[in-house]
Write a structure and sequence with these properties.
Order of helices and strands of chain A: EHEEHEHEEEEE
Largest sheet of chain A: 4 strands, mixed
Strand order of the largest sheet of chain A: 4-7-6-5
Number of helices of chain A: 3
Radius of gyration of chain A: 16 Å
Strand content of chain A: 25-35%
Structural class of chain A: alpha/beta
Number of strands of chain A: 9
Low-confidence stretches of chain A: none
Distance between the termini of chain A: 17 Å
Shape of chain A: globular
Oligomer: homodimer
Helix content of chain A: 10-25%
Chain lengths: ~140, ~140
Amino acid sequence: MEPRVSLVTLGVADLARSRAFYEALGWRSTSRPEDGVVFFQSGGMVLALWGRAELAADSGVTDAGGWGGVTPAWNVGSPAAVDAIIEMARAAGATIARVGAATAWGGYSGVFIDPDGHPWEIAHNPFWTLEPDGSIRLPDA
Amino acid sequence: MEPRVSLVTLGVADLARSRAFYEALGWRSTSRPEDGVVFFQSGGMVLALWGRAELAADSGVTDAGGWGGVTPAWNVGSPAAVDAIIEMARAAGATIARVGAATAWGGYSGVFIDPDGHPWEIAHNPFWTLEPDGSIRLPDA
Protein backbone atom coordinates (compact mmCIF):
# COMPACT_ATOMS: atom_id res chain seq x y z
CA MET A 1 0.00 0.00 0.00
CA GLU A 2 2.40 2.61 -1.30
CA PRO A 3 1.36 6.10 -0.21
CA ARG A 4 0.02 8.54 -2.76
CA VAL A 5 -1.32 12.02 -3.15
CA SER A 6 -4.34 10.88 -5.18
CA LEU A 7 -6.32 14.09 -5.05
CA VAL A 8 -5.75 17.69 -4.04
CA THR A 9 -8.88 19.72 -3.35
CA LEU A 10 -8.85 23.50 -3.37
CA GLY A 11 -11.62 25.21 -1.44
CA VAL A 12 -13.17 28.01 -3.49
CA ALA A 13 -15.82 30.71 -3.07
CA ASP A 14 -17.36 30.53 -6.55
CA LEU A 15 -17.09 27.21 -8.35
CA ALA A 16 -17.92 28.60 -11.81
CA ARG A 17 -15.37 31.42 -11.48
CA SER A 18 -12.64 29.05 -10.32
CA ARG A 19 -13.43 26.50 -13.00
CA ALA A 20 -13.16 29.21 -15.66
CA PHE A 21 -9.83 30.33 -14.19
CA TYR A 22 -8.32 26.82 -14.27
CA GLU A 23 -9.76 26.12 -17.72
CA ALA A 24 -8.00 29.25 -18.94
CA LEU A 25 -4.74 27.59 -17.84
CA GLY A 26 -5.55 24.46 -19.83
CA TRP A 27 -7.28 22.23 -17.27
CA ARG A 28 -10.21 20.21 -18.63
CA SER A 29 -13.13 18.69 -16.73
CA THR A 30 -16.28 16.81 -17.62
CA SER A 31 -17.89 17.65 -14.26
CA ARG A 32 -21.36 19.17 -14.60
CA PRO A 33 -22.44 22.35 -12.77
CA GLU A 34 -25.03 20.31 -10.84
CA ASP A 35 -22.26 18.08 -9.45
CA GLY A 36 -21.25 20.89 -7.13
CA VAL A 37 -17.60 19.92 -7.50
CA VAL A 38 -15.09 20.05 -10.36
CA PHE A 39 -12.57 17.28 -11.02
CA PHE A 40 -9.59 17.74 -13.34
CA GLN A 41 -7.49 14.71 -14.32
CA SER A 42 -3.81 15.59 -13.73
CA GLY A 43 -1.55 12.77 -14.83
CA GLY A 44 -2.19 9.96 -12.38
CA MET A 45 -3.98 12.14 -9.85
CA VAL A 46 -6.89 14.53 -9.65
CA LEU A 47 -7.18 18.25 -8.89
CA ALA A 48 -10.56 19.19 -7.44
CA LEU A 49 -12.42 22.44 -6.75
CA TRP A 50 -15.09 22.45 -4.06
CA GLY A 51 -16.81 24.98 -1.84
CA ARG A 52 -14.38 26.02 0.87
CA ALA A 53 -16.89 25.78 3.75
CA GLU A 54 -17.91 22.28 2.63
CA LEU A 55 -14.26 21.25 2.35
CA ALA A 56 -13.48 22.59 5.82
CA ALA A 57 -16.41 20.70 7.35
CA ASP A 58 -15.52 17.51 5.46
CA SER A 59 -11.88 17.84 6.53
CA GLY A 60 -12.77 18.28 10.20
CA VAL A 61 -10.93 21.58 10.49
CA THR A 62 -11.63 25.21 11.32
CA ASP A 63 -10.99 27.59 8.44
CA ALA A 64 -8.36 30.18 9.34
CA GLY A 65 -9.55 32.20 6.37
CA GLY A 66 -6.31 32.66 4.48
CA TRP A 67 -3.34 30.61 3.37
CA GLY A 68 -2.76 27.56 5.51
CA GLY A 69 0.60 26.05 4.75
CA VAL A 70 0.05 24.16 1.50
CA THR A 71 1.41 25.26 -1.89
CA PRO A 72 1.14 23.25 -5.10
CA ALA A 73 3.63 23.57 -7.94
CA TRP A 74 3.41 22.93 -11.65
CA ASN A 75 6.78 22.04 -13.13
CA VAL A 76 7.57 22.72 -16.76
CA GLY A 77 10.41 22.16 -19.19
CA SER A 78 11.98 25.59 -19.48
CA PRO A 79 12.18 29.10 -18.02
CA ALA A 80 10.23 30.31 -21.07
CA ALA A 81 7.38 27.95 -20.20
CA VAL A 82 7.35 29.36 -16.65
CA ASP A 83 7.04 32.88 -18.04
CA ALA A 84 4.29 31.84 -20.45
CA ILE A 85 2.17 30.28 -17.70
CA ILE A 86 2.64 33.25 -15.38
CA GLU A 87 1.35 35.49 -18.17
CA MET A 88 -1.58 33.13 -18.89
CA ALA A 89 -2.46 33.25 -15.19
CA ARG A 90 -2.21 37.05 -15.13
CA ALA A 91 -4.51 37.28 -18.16
CA ALA A 92 -6.97 34.91 -16.42
CA GLY A 93 -7.14 37.19 -13.39
CA ALA A 94 -4.44 35.86 -11.08
CA THR A 95 -2.32 38.05 -8.88
CA ILE A 96 1.36 37.59 -9.65
CA ALA A 97 3.30 37.16 -6.40
CA ARG A 98 6.59 36.97 -8.28
CA VAL A 99 7.38 36.79 -11.96
CA GLY A 100 9.72 34.13 -13.26
CA ALA A 101 13.30 34.49 -12.07
CA ALA A 102 16.32 32.35 -11.25
CA THR A 103 16.06 30.77 -7.80
CA ALA A 104 18.62 30.19 -5.06
CA TRP A 105 18.38 26.42 -5.66
CA GLY A 106 19.49 26.71 -9.27
CA GLY A 107 16.14 26.57 -11.00
CA TYR A 108 13.72 29.17 -12.30
CA SER A 109 10.26 29.90 -10.95
CA GLY A 110 7.41 32.33 -10.51
CA VAL A 111 4.27 32.31 -8.36
CA PHE A 112 0.69 33.27 -9.15
CA ILE A 113 -2.18 33.53 -6.69
CA ASP A 114 -5.53 32.21 -7.89
CA PRO A 115 -8.88 34.02 -7.39
CA ASP A 116 -9.28 32.35 -3.96
CA GLY A 117 -5.81 33.21 -2.69
CA HIS A 118 -4.22 29.83 -3.44
CA PRO A 119 -0.61 30.27 -4.57
CA TRP A 120 0.91 28.11 -7.31
CA GLU A 121 4.61 27.94 -7.97
CA ILE A 122 5.39 27.49 -11.65
CA ALA A 123 8.88 26.02 -11.81
CA HIS A 124 11.60 24.74 -14.05
CA ASN A 125 13.84 22.40 -12.09
CA PRO A 126 16.80 21.26 -14.18
CA PHE A 127 17.78 18.68 -11.52
CA TRP A 128 14.54 16.69 -11.73
CA THR A 129 13.40 14.59 -14.69
CA LEU A 130 10.29 15.83 -16.43
CA GLU A 131 8.94 12.82 -18.33
CA PRO A 132 7.23 13.23 -21.72
CA ASP A 133 3.87 12.50 -20.03
CA GLY A 134 4.40 15.38 -17.57
CA SER A 135 5.43 13.17 -14.65
CA ILE A 136 8.20 14.29 -12.33
CA ARG A 137 10.97 11.96 -11.23
CA LEU A 138 13.35 12.78 -8.39
CA PRO A 139 16.99 12.06 -9.30
CA ASP A 140 17.26 9.17 -6.84
CA ALA A 141 13.72 7.77 -6.87
CA MET B 1 1.80 22.17 -22.11
CA GLU B 2 -0.77 20.08 -20.28
CA PRO B 3 -1.28 21.34 -16.73
CA ARG B 4 -0.06 19.31 -13.80
CA VAL B 5 0.16 19.24 -10.06
CA SER B 6 3.85 18.32 -10.03
CA LEU B 7 4.56 18.98 -6.40
CA VAL B 8 2.59 19.65 -3.24
CA THR B 9 4.53 21.24 -0.39
CA LEU B 10 3.30 21.08 3.20
CA GLY B 11 4.63 23.75 5.52
CA VAL B 12 5.78 22.23 8.81
CA ALA B 13 7.15 23.40 12.15
CA ASP B 14 9.66 20.59 12.73
CA LEU B 15 11.04 18.89 9.64
CA ALA B 16 12.41 15.83 11.46
CA ARG B 17 9.14 15.25 13.33
CA SER B 18 7.08 15.55 10.14
CA ARG B 19 9.44 13.35 8.18
CA ALA B 20 9.15 10.65 10.84
CA PHE B 21 5.36 10.95 10.77
CA TYR B 22 5.16 10.51 6.99
CA GLU B 23 7.74 7.73 7.02
CA ALA B 24 5.54 5.90 9.54
CA LEU B 25 2.82 5.97 6.87
CA GLY B 26 5.16 4.42 4.29
CA TRP B 27 6.61 7.46 2.53
CA ARG B 28 10.30 7.19 1.64
CA SER B 29 12.83 9.94 0.97
CA THR B 30 16.51 10.17 0.23
CA SER B 31 16.63 13.83 1.28
CA ARG B 32 19.36 14.57 3.83
CA PRO B 33 18.76 16.55 7.00
CA GLU B 34 21.12 19.27 5.75
CA ASP B 35 18.92 19.75 2.67
CA GLY B 36 16.39 21.56 4.86
CA VAL B 37 13.55 20.08 2.82
CA VAL B 38 12.16 16.57 2.38
CA PHE B 39 11.00 15.21 -0.98
CA PHE B 40 8.90 12.05 -1.30
CA GLN B 41 8.29 10.54 -4.74
CA SER B 42 4.53 9.90 -5.09
CA GLY B 43 3.75 8.23 -8.38
CA GLY B 44 4.45 10.84 -11.04
CA MET B 45 4.57 13.73 -8.61
CA VAL B 46 6.36 14.78 -5.45
CA LEU B 47 5.19 15.48 -1.89
CA ALA B 48 7.47 17.91 -0.06
CA LEU B 49 7.89 19.05 3.54
CA TRP B 50 9.43 22.46 4.18
CA GLY B 51 9.48 25.04 6.94
CA ARG B 52 6.13 26.79 6.97
CA ALA B 53 7.55 30.32 7.30
CA GLU B 54 9.93 29.69 4.39
CA LEU B 55 7.07 28.30 2.29
CA ALA B 56 4.85 31.31 3.06
CA ALA B 57 7.62 33.73 2.07
CA ASP B 58 8.42 31.75 -1.08
CA SER B 59 4.73 31.61 -2.00
CA GLY B 60 4.25 35.35 -1.57
CA VAL B 61 1.45 34.95 0.97
CA THR B 62 0.67 35.85 4.56
CA ASP B 63 0.23 32.84 6.84
CA ALA B 64 -3.23 32.78 8.40
CA GLY B 65 -1.89 30.28 10.91
CA GLY B 66 -4.34 27.44 10.48
CA TRP B 67 -6.01 25.51 7.68
CA GLY B 68 -6.21 27.45 4.47
CA GLY B 69 -8.52 25.70 2.05
CA VAL B 70 -6.40 22.85 0.67
CA THR B 71 -6.91 19.18 1.55
CA PRO B 72 -5.03 16.28 -0.03
CA ALA B 73 -6.47 12.79 -0.29
CA TRP B 74 -4.91 9.36 -0.56
CA ASN B 75 -7.19 6.91 -2.34
CA VAL B 76 -6.98 3.18 -1.66
CA GLY B 77 -8.60 0.01 -2.88
CA SER B 78 -11.00 -0.88 -0.10
CA PRO B 79 -12.74 0.35 3.05
CA ALA B 80 -10.44 -1.96 5.04
CA ALA B 81 -7.41 -0.15 3.63
CA VAL B 82 -8.92 3.17 4.69
CA ASP B 83 -9.35 1.85 8.23
CA ALA B 84 -5.80 0.48 8.27
CA ILE B 85 -4.26 3.81 7.25
CA ILE B 86 -6.35 5.77 9.75
CA GLU B 87 -5.03 3.46 12.48
CA MET B 88 -1.44 3.80 11.20
CA ALA B 89 -1.84 7.58 11.33
CA ARG B 90 -3.29 7.45 14.83
CA ALA B 91 -0.37 5.30 15.99
CA ALA B 92 2.04 7.79 14.40
CA GLY B 93 0.53 10.67 16.37
CA ALA B 94 -2.18 12.03 14.10
CA THR B 95 -5.47 13.37 15.36
CA ILE B 96 -8.38 11.47 13.82
CA ALA B 97 -10.98 13.95 12.57
CA ARG B 98 -13.27 11.14 11.51
CA VAL B 99 -12.78 7.39 11.39
CA GLY B 100 -13.63 5.48 8.22
CA ALA B 101 -17.32 5.45 7.36
CA ALA B 102 -19.60 5.33 4.34
CA THR B 103 -19.94 8.73 2.67
CA ALA B 104 -22.90 10.53 1.11
CA TRP B 105 -21.31 10.15 -2.33
CA GLY B 106 -21.26 6.36 -2.13
CA GLY B 107 -17.68 5.80 -1.11
CA TYR B 108 -15.92 5.26 2.22
CA SER B 109 -13.48 7.63 3.88
CA GLY B 110 -11.85 8.88 7.03
CA VAL B 111 -9.71 11.92 7.83
CA PHE B 112 -6.56 12.29 9.90
CA ILE B 113 -4.84 15.52 10.85
CA ASP B 114 -1.06 15.50 10.73
CA PRO B 115 1.21 16.99 13.45
CA ASP B 116 1.05 20.41 11.75
CA GLY B 117 -2.72 20.49 11.38
CA HIS B 118 -2.85 19.38 7.75
CA PRO B 119 -5.87 17.13 7.12
CA TRP B 120 -5.69 14.11 4.81
CA GLU B 121 -8.74 12.33 3.54
CA ILE B 122 -8.15 8.59 3.15
CA ALA B 123 -10.74 7.37 0.69
CA HIS B 124 -12.07 4.41 -1.20
CA ASN B 125 -13.95 5.63 -4.26
CA PRO B 126 -15.60 2.73 -6.12
CA PHE B 127 -16.47 5.02 -9.06
CA TRP B 128 -12.88 5.91 -9.92
CA THR B 129 -10.27 3.55 -11.31
CA LEU B 130 -7.32 2.85 -9.05
CA GLU B 131 -4.57 1.57 -11.35
CA PRO B 132 -2.11 -1.11 -10.18
CA ASP B 133 0.60 1.58 -9.96
CA GLY B 134 -1.55 3.65 -7.57
CA SER B 135 -2.69 6.16 -10.19
CA ILE B 136 -6.25 7.43 -10.18
CA ARG B 137 -8.32 7.67 -13.33
CA LEU B 138 -11.60 9.58 -13.51
CA PRO B 139 -14.34 7.58 -15.25
CA ASP B 140 -14.47 9.90 -18.26
CA ALA B 141 -10.85 11.07 -18.48
